[in-house]
Amino acid sequence: MKLYDSGVFLLNGTTIVPEDEAGKELQDKKEQYKTGTISYDILQAHNIGEDKENLKIKFDAITSHDLTYVGIIQTARASGVEKFPLPYVLTCCHNSLCAVGGTINEDDHVFGLTAAKKYGGIYLPPHMGVIHQYMRETMAGGGKMILGSDSHTRYGALGTMAVGEGGGELVKQILEQTWDVKYPEVIAVYLDGKPNPGIGPQDIAIAIVTAVFKNGYVKNKVMEFVGPGVSSMSTDYRNGIDVMTTETTCLSSIWRTDEDTEQFLKVHGRGEDYKKLEPKETAYYDGCIYIDLSQIHSMIALPFHPSNGYEIRELNANMDEILHEVEEDAKKLIKNPDLHLNLWEKVHEGALYADQGTIAGCSGGTYSNIMEAAYLLDGKGTGQDVFNLSVYPSSQAVMMDLVRKGAIEKLIASGATIRTAFCGPCFGAGDTPAHGQLAVRHTTRNFPNREGSKPGNGQLASVALMDARSIAATAANGGRITAADELGYEYECPEYVYDPIAYEQRVYQGFKKEDPDEELVCGPNIKDWPELPELNDHMLLKVCAYITDPVTTTDELIPSGETGSFRSNPMGLAEFTLSRRVPEYVGKAKVVMNYEKEWKNGGCPKEVQKILEKIHSIHGYEKINDQTIDLSSTIYAVKPGDGSAREQAASCQRVLLGGANITVEYATKRYRSNLINWGMVPFVLNVEPDFADDDYIFVPDIKKALDTDMKEIKAYVIGEEIRPLSLAIEPLTDEEKEIIRCGSLINYNRKLKER
């Protein structure tokens, strides 16, 4: 694998010419050749604005699951929605098995069905399919764009540019507004050669994520898969690589299409959705990742990130060094001093052993992955000891053909257990291992606590990511980590036969059939969003969490797993904010809320009064009107927002009266967008942080600052001494500025309606 240091020209889809080696003719037409990518045509076709650099995108369809759709619809309702103007697919794949919270999950599913009837949506009931598999089967196609409230919204292998964002961006599409984004850089992913036997899509994906995550090579950019190697893989196989591009922090992905793409769509009854996509004769890319597929070996991503990848053969050859490094890194993430990751407990006779295997979800549960896993386990057993294997086909349609082909019978006969379509193993709500255990999974993530453990309660397990093929080989070897590409076998996957009968019998198809008289059924836990204040002239922020980790994931900001049972109750869910990272945060934020309430009701807490006295001592603010200052909480994190698109990572801070985040940089666009849509100011630092936990930060004239270039925003740390602090806000659209001024997207849309 090679990462180019500069942009490249791609000639005829096959010849890479580095920019610094290109002739004058190519160099002179660089801007013209930027329009030669697949990405350019799709983005501009969906751009309803006149500016080709600052895009205003309208999508062809949107989708969300039962961890997010209640909040999205509640936001849309508060904003005045009357119907869904584009296909909106509501799936029940994230909370279909989680039993915590009594009737809450099914209450939300009833809410989703009645919302689909009322507003004209498409409703996929529990256990029928995971969100992304259903979209691949029924919605994605050549030249389309789809927006989802799940970070793994990726359908590039079918010719669709798909984007995962927070719920606010879906609300904008429902209200016929736009997704606003600066035209992104486009990175060519040039695939050459052919994968060797035993190599699966997860092996290639882990290799890519390992190469580009830490250096930010594709951060907020589009990955465009080109080159002859694309056609060496089936489209089903490509889907497994494509969905993992999210773990690189790229914005979206797109692949060149071919006859196999067309056949995939024909098999699914949608041949008309095929469109041949390929770069023009000459195309310029802002960077290039060259991959010789024949050089990829069986991979494992060790705890606690998909980018922590190693060849399995490398792990076996250097186990002492690698496991020690992983354990040392874990110490930085696990804040319980009495708890330690000990992978050495899993080493026996020089080999690393897992306690559990899982093949599931949008990445692992595809037809070809499970078929090959069944082939490898045919006539073998998973053993009678601790190791256990569970398999979750990604949809009922996939399950039906696996049954017909005999794959399910082979897996059951090996000792594996078969589950329904469910996303839980990816985020800690299914197949949680015991304390101290190691799981190997073909799912999308292995972040801390996504296996269900709670370090704060003394519980710790860990997950390593592997391909379904190596997991099957590991299962046949009693849990001993085994590389499938070392087994020396050949396998040709039988052609898939798609049967939509299960969907025809159960899926509610309500698009363009909205019924305003339909009653929206709200269970007792489904609550409206609380009223949120508009931005005042000046901000006073109290730092309620100070996080110095290199990256802070959305799972740390708002944990997944059983906390999802409170997803439809904004204040109930907010109780879990930062609970596994900064447990004291909620208590501190509530104190700030109470201070603000007391202050605005005519009183003034002593602590706040002391801070105000210091503010009055700052030159130019001696006579400031205290009523033009609002008190709110803030968090500082070096690089927050990697991982899930779920807007609750921001909304939970906001309903606790969070006013801003202060960072060095944001890990993803989607997290920053979530902050904006919830009326929080996305500050970045121009200097090293010269403040600490529990300090107050005064940001005067914040509303005026929004009308400037925002590159230099003066602020003051109000401690024992008053110290200046230089903040900035990266560019915002006019609409985003107004959303922040209004205090939330809901308030913004209410004002629009009043006009």
Any chance you could write out the topology, listing elements then pairs?
Blueprint: E1 2-3, E2 8-11, E3 15-18, H1 24-28, H2 30-33, H3 38-45, E4 54-57, E5 61-65, H4 69-78, E6 88-91, H5 104-119, E7 122-124, H6 131-138, E8 145-148, E9 161-164, H7 167-174, E10 179-182, E11 186-192, H8 201-212, E12 222-226, H9 235-242, E13 252-255, H10 259-267, E14 282-285, E15 287-292, E16 299-301, E17 309-311, H11 312-317, H12 319-333, E18 347-348, E19 351-352, E20 356-359, H13 361-364, H14 367-377, E21 388-391, H15 396-405, H16 407-414, E22 417-418, H17 424-427, E23 438-442, E24 462-466, H18 468-476, H19 501-506, E25 508-509, E26 538-547, E27 552-553, H20 554-557, H21 570-574, H22 585-600, H23 606-615, E28 629-637, E29 640-642, H24 648-655, E30 658-663, H25 669-677, E31 681-685, E32 696-699, H26 702-705, E33 713-718, E34 722-729, H27 734-742, H28 745-754
Parallel strand pairs: 5-6, 5-8, 6-7, 8-9, 11-12, 11-15, 12-13, 20-21, 20-23, 21-22, 23-24, 26-28, 27-29, 28-30, 30-31
Antiparallel strand pairs: 1-15, 2-3, 2-14, 4-10, 7-25, 16-17, 16-24, 18-19, 26-32, 31-34, 32-33, 33-34
Family: Belongs to the aconitase/IPM isomerase family.
Cofactor: [4Fe-4S] cluster
GO cellular component, one term: cytosol
